[in-house]
Amino acid sequence: MNYGVVSQEQLEKIDEILTEKLIKIGVDCVIIIDMAGNIITAKDNGTSKYDVYSFAALAAGNFATVDAMAKLVGEEEFSLLFHKGTDCNIHFSKIDDELLLISMFGKDISLGFLRLNVVETIEQIKKLWARD
Amino acid sequence: MSFINLREKIVQIKIVYYGPGRGGKTTNLEYINRKFNKQIQSEMVSLKTHGDRTLFFDFLPFDMGKIKGYEMKIQLYTVPGQVKYNATRKLVLKGVDGIVFVADAQEQMREKNIRSLNQLYENLKSYKQSIFKIPLVLQYNKVDLRNQGIPILPTSVLEKDMNSKLKVPSFEASALTGYHVPETLKKIISSTVVSIQKKLL
């Protein structure tokens, strides 16, 4: 799989999946990034404005750090991360070795419901890439 | 690796400022942040210790305008220079498109510069990248200290130490005053953009 260039068609399908599975259930903002900190795509609910570029750089660093910690305790990886705040929560999940799905959401969605949807989103995205 | 979004016509390019500790990498970015604030839409992100040393990296996104209809988003990063942080340096180098090596021109730093450059070679190798192929610019920083009587290596010596095999563009600079900081940035951006164009076409 080559992420250097993702086709317009692939991106549109990914955006559709993100909107359908995550934005519609009330997630404020979803970003797919690669481990180098580049943004592959970002979707939001139209009301929240985040500085997604800085966010991507920090998220890639954060995930890399946690990955290194996993190795130190003898784990292959920690494939998901969750940060809890008062009004905003952030959920990170690995799509594959190169890609990361980040969801930012408020108090209205339960973590369990989000996780279920994230798993389905990732499955659908993986299928999309496998097919192409 | 640069990422190209064909739908929104955005190219994201990662440029890393690398070099020995206290060499002026963060100062380079701080100067760019002040000088080009019109082209910078977000805050510079710095992850540093209480003593103002870079702990993880600094990050500065920089809009360069359009080339052939594609919006260029340059992402500037620094690495932590301290010897003990090599694992972190390696993480920041992941997916790098172009490198500015900021050397400290003070006489006493001669060995540290060479050691850091050698480690850059090794770190790039671990990502299957070659220091001889990646766009690279050398910056000999702190030449302004010459006026204060601090022993500074002549540029010819620095060139011989670091650039005799690499043969890449190099600049004397002072990150604090901004001398040759924009020139360094322009050079690395143009080399990187050319190299990405070559890869794609």
Describe the structure.
- The complex is a heterodimer of chains A (132) and B (201).
- Chain A has 132 residues and is of the alpha+beta class.
- Chain A has one domain (8-131): Dynein light chain 2a, cytoplasmic (Beta-Lactamase).
- Helices cover 44% and strands 23% of the residues of chain A.
- Chain A is built from three helices and six strands.
- Chain A has a five-stranded antiparallel beta sheet with strand order 3-2-6-5-4, sandwiched between helices.
- In chain A, a hairpin with a 4-residue loop joins strand 2 and strand 3 (39-44).
- Chain A is globular, with a radius of gyration of 14 Å.
- The termini of chain A are close together.
- Chain B is built from five helices and eight strands.
- The model of chain B has no long low-confidence stretch (mean pLDDT 93).
- In chain B, helix 3 links the parallel strand 6 (98-104) and strand 7.
- Chain B is 32% helix and 27% strand.
- In chain B, strands 1, 2, 3, 4, 5, 6, 7 and 8 form an eight-stranded mixed beta sheet that branches.
- Chain B has one domain (3-200): P-loop containing nucleotide triphosphate hydrolases (Rossmann fold).
- The interface between A and B is medium-sized, with 26 and 27 residues.
- Strand 1 (5-6) of chain A pairs parallel with strand 1 of chain B, so a sheet runs across the interface.
Give a quick precis of the structure:
The complex is a heterodimer of chains A (132) and B (201). Chain A is an alpha+beta fold. Chain A has 3 helices and 6 strands.
